[in-house]
Amino acid sequence: MKKYDSKIKWLILLPIIFYCLFLIVLPLLYIFIISFFQNDYYGGIIQVFTLKNYFQILDIVYIKVFLQSFLIAFMTTIICICIAYPFSLFVSEKKSRYKSIFLMLVIIPFLTNSLIRTYGWIVLLRKEGLINTVLSQLHLIDEPLALMYNNLGIIIGMVYTLLPFMILPVYSAVDKLDRSMLEAASDLGASKWQRFIHVIIPETLPGLFNGSLMVFIPAIGYFFISDLLGGGKLMLLGNLIKNQFLVARNWPFGASVSIVLIIITFFLVKLYKKAGGKMDDLGGF
Amino acid sequence: MNKKIIVILIVAIILLNGCALKESSNVLNVLNWSSYIPDSVIRDFEEETGIIVNYGTYSSNEECLAKVQSAKEGTYDLIFPSDYMIELMIKRDLIQKMDLSQLTNLGNINPNYLGLSYDKNNDYSVPFIAASVVIAVNRDLVTDEITTYQDLLSKDYRNNIVMLDDQRIVIGMALLALGYDMNETDPVKLEEAKDWLLELKPNIKAYDSDSPKTFLISKETALGVIWNAEAALAVQENPNIEIIIPEEGFAVSIDNFAIPKNAKHVENAYRFIDYILRDDVMVKIIEDYPYKNVNKKAEASLPESYLKNHAANIDDAVFHRGSFVENIGEDIVHYDKLWAEIK
User: Which of A11, A233, A239, A280 to mutate to test the interface with B (most CBs of B within 10 A)?
Assistant: First the structure.
């Protein structure tokens, strides 16, 4: 790598600083400020200080929305973990040429827009969709299975969309595992399951936390999946925020919900750091 | 390496952004509902007048409001808000008075749709197209007699209804079913509406405003409470889908031409409106998007398929039994909360 002198370095950094400042910091600041303003119920903002928007979140109805979102996000995370570990252990034992092919397969879907992939699931899951048609042609089912327009559909969509975010960090942790430790565990009489619980999990904890964070947080906000695959019947935090801006015309309330969500995210990241995770690992793989 | 590429991309985006908007005097900046006017109509207009149309879209009145409010004044020359949004935009001083004498084809409009409650003298708006909420029933799957929203509560329709994803329409429907006004704000009556909707809940398969017709066409659901144009398109696919006008009442909506305050190309906006109001142009639009036509002169040349389609061609007398969604001020908070409760 060539060393840049500091002027050129600044010049190169300038667009990124500009980008962060104007497209991330300032809008967030704006959201933060309007979350303390009143709304005029016609989409306008009255610049009078109030904490009303934050008290409104404490209403049982909105707390229910928070809980529903966390439940869906939690289940999504658990299922992703259950898929990511076997996959990672399987791939890490392969030759390096095959490893890269498997990892490539994980990443390839990202080349298509996630909204389009979600529409793809509709074709598969709906009442007269591919899965139901095949199953009933094979006489395995009499009635079409209810695979979507319910919570199952939401979970399928979330897991599918977010799985790579779990697989990649878990895989990189599993791949770095010292094989001799696993052998030692076996030599000392550990069963496969004991080896997994007492050696693999503790040794890959940072990767597990990293992946969980990257799955859990987006899962709270992905409103289009609950709209498309859940039939819009379950209101998640993402839906609630979107509604405040686009339907209820209550920007300050929408802003305050967003701020609470950001605070929760910060809290989770803190937890992650406390558990020994590194911030650099969150940035990429 | 990666970071370098990102830097280059960001610089490129910033530079390209600067050249994207060419300022020219002969343009028209339209902000319209998505899928509402066929591209061919826009192209014909450009060819005929030499005006270049910049076309933006939105998918709800609130989105339109947000875009007009947050953009620099004069960004848009022509928008298409619905009834209640016209009223709101007049109040907020976002749209300007119209000079109706500029519109030679104004006489084509069915007078039934002029001077309505939201803009009594059409000072600010000219009607473009109308829509009404109907019940659609797939007769291949359901043979019972259905005349009211109340009938939808039947236990036979478990998980078999597609509903508009619109809090005012759905809560309004519950209020109508209970015999109240669609825009009721009394908390006691809203509480009753909530119970009614909770009773209906197991029958609802999905809330969808974007393409509820798909549910009916693919037999995902046998019933739907949807806008008439969506129902009309479903009927085109499956003639056994029957349209029912609910006895208790129903929501209607009229979309209008309106010119934002300080628009830069007002002349061009009038030319565009006048062009759309021409009967032959309106026929082209209605053929693609079978909403309720409000252009009297166009009626004569509408295709048979439209006239025979009861979902598309809602009778004027029937239409006037419907109610508009009204601005209810801070009471919208109750609606919003109720919506979160029933979902």
Answer: A233
